[in-house]
Task: structure prediction
Amino acid sequence: MKICILLYEHDLPDLRIESEARRLARGEHEIVIVCERRNDPDYQMDIENISVVRLKLEIRFLRAVNRIIYLLFLFDCFWFLTLARLHRQHRFDAFHISDLPLARTAQILAKLCNRRVVLDLHENYPVVLQAFWPWSMDWRMRFKKRILFSLSRWKRYEQSALSGADETIVVVEEAKQRIASLGIPEKQITIVGNTLKDSFMSFPQQDPQLEKRYSGKLLLSYIGSVNLSVALDKVIKAMPKIISAVPNAHLLILGEGSQIPELHQMITMFSLEQYVSFESWQPLSHIPSYMAVSSVGLLPFKPDEHHQSTVSHKLFQYMYMRCPVMASECKALIRIIADARCGRVVKGSMEISSIFAKDVITLLKDENLRYDMGCRGRRAVLANYRWPEDGDRLAELYQRLEASQTTKKLFQKVYD
Result:
């Protein structure tokens, strides 16, 4: 099959998209990844059967008009016209839509061309949208959030997109249950998890500079987006109590997001400048070395609708790096951590800083416990949470689509 993978408002590299493309290309499918030109323009996937097309609307006025139309109708004119041109060139058999924003645009084109649609939902997008707003907003931002990005509007859009898809992909069993509850038949929902990719295991795991920088410290690491969906404020509030019991404890926040200014204010208020470090986004190839110097990996997500039905790449990466995990009460995290016995889930959804502090202190004071949890996590991820198994489920999904497409063509010939 000729498959067009759509990555809207993002550019490569993208760990999940590239892994999916590589697995499908192994199955002799022809893959075209269409994304936005934002990062390194020379980045290509040098793999047979995979090509990358980068889009950018250069004229500022047209870009603004296109954005206004999208916000009003959730339909991207520029992408629609570009995809139509690419379809005339490649004659795609299926459109693989990465997450929700481009669903309507691609589904309208697919319907006009009588092509299949696979909706790949990495997250509960309507809920995620509510987290990427600063604490302080002017009237224009409040209008956008309440009207254009309201939860109810995007839930209706999600329902429409699900109804228009031939197949839906989710990342975890809890997400499958959520989508099924919206009326989508379970046979049309496939789990393709954010499990450990083989490429991650090949990255360097030691960095002498990092080891020197954090030498003598018991490092609590959070790696990811810094937004309203992450309870890092509770972590910072717990730090004075943690430091009083474990003086060499240190918090590392590696990432970027709208809440960093507020967190800096909290650090100043609690006089934690010597005990908390911030670092900006790092290439994926550097992440193992940060995890290697960490004593505990933090996943302090707020247990909202999104985090109850998804799981982060970082969980399996921490597990592979033998780093015990401290997580909040989210269903998928509870299930996986309990099964692997590789960390602790904080009772009370991270809302009570003293409970979090107590659990962290217990871990930091017991090196043997951390070692045992780390080893169990490593064994579990290698046995049960690796990408090849999830990649095979993705390949099987497209085998079903290809078989049904072949059957449909045979029936058409018979009736013709």
Notes: Residues 387-415 form the longest helix (29 residues). The chain is about 50% helix and 15% strand. The chain has a mean pLDDT of 91. The two ends are 24 Å apart (CA to CA).
